[in-house]
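Readers of this paper often ask what the protein records in our data store actually look like. Such a record has a labelled line for the sequence and another for the backbone structure tokens. The tokens are whole numbers drawn from a learned vocabulary of local backbone shapes. We quote a single record here, exactly as it is kept in our systems:
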Amino acid sequence: MTNPKIPITVGIAVVVAFAVFFILTNTESTESDVTNSSSEKIESIDNSTESVSVTKSDKSNTAVSTPKEPEFYKIVGKDIPPGYSFGNYHINNMDVGVAVTQIRDPDEKVSIRFTNQHSGVLSNVTLNFISGVEREIKIGIQEDDGSGMPIGTWLNDDSFKINFTAPGSRVDTFVFDNEVNLEDGKVYHIVIEPYTTTDSSRGMSIVNFYSNIEGRPLNQEDPDIYSSDPYFNSLFFDGTEWIVEDKWPIFLIQFSDGTKDGQPYTLNAPWTVRGKIAVGQTVIPSSDYLVSKFGFLIGKKGDPPEPLYYGVRDSENKILAAGKFVDPEQLGRGTNWVEVTLKEPIPFEAGQLYRIYVTSPIPREDNNYLFYGHEFSYDSELGYGGNRHKLTISHNEGESWSAWYDADAVFKITTVG
């Protein structure tokens, strides 16, 4: 079986000769609006699209799957106003992917700022951190000074001393020696800095981020939306002042009682859509919705000779809607945000499983479509909706489906109330 995942390597070159590599029915036609912001068919049914909008950009990458069962099916049952949107569409101008902050000099520092959501004893911290030179680094927790900046002293006088013994050394998880207590609702900083200001080993150390800034993807109270955190951000100290960078931190914190929090997405990746391969998102909503529109982040490889189509199925795999998603000439050479408005809204009931997806009859490997999603390097339970909502794939035109448990589609669903 051909792997539908596109392996793309992203290289980040650094000055000290150090490089970091990080290794988704066919009915009547629709009109579309296109805005450029950067660099076999399923059965036809009577639910065609009214409109299609497309926005374009650039990006790509890769991943692996580790299946798990969904953990919770919390019913929220909130009132839904007209035009309400939910999903995993929190992208910054579609320019998604890895971003880095570099610590070059002894007086430079990096902070991951977040609002804590659990009271307890902190067990460990996971970061995406690599050093390009031999040097000693200190990592620990600091409280916020009230203005959004680190207070300057370590919580409980505890910090990690990490000795990078060779260029390219990498450390992910740091375990505390002393008991560090965090309070629910307080703003904290994970601070990374050289061990001493007299460190003579000047050079590149890299803290990896994701180029988004929205909040954390898992919301325990309402799994359909992101967890709002206005303080969630990355900061850089240039030796004189702290500067807010507006990069999406990649981090995981775990407490002694097993509770976890953080932002686990580390890259944006494309899946191939062609022939019998269909790709989309499984959604188990926590409230009742009347869905009027949905969108995905789409690209193309070569020049597909036919349109991309969409489908919506329920838990029994019954087709609820199908139609043309986008024509190939509407897509630019980067990533394209594509939304379709359904002719008739579809009810999504809380606690029930639904699949929204795209498919293409084109069997060729050189001319097809790409479907984009976010992938994890760390804990997939902290992704959008936990394990409730997941990227889904079919290799037999939708007859059966498999969940891709360490990835979520970039998607958005809009309702009429």
In short: The two ends are 42 Å apart (CA to CA). The chain has no helices and 30 strands.
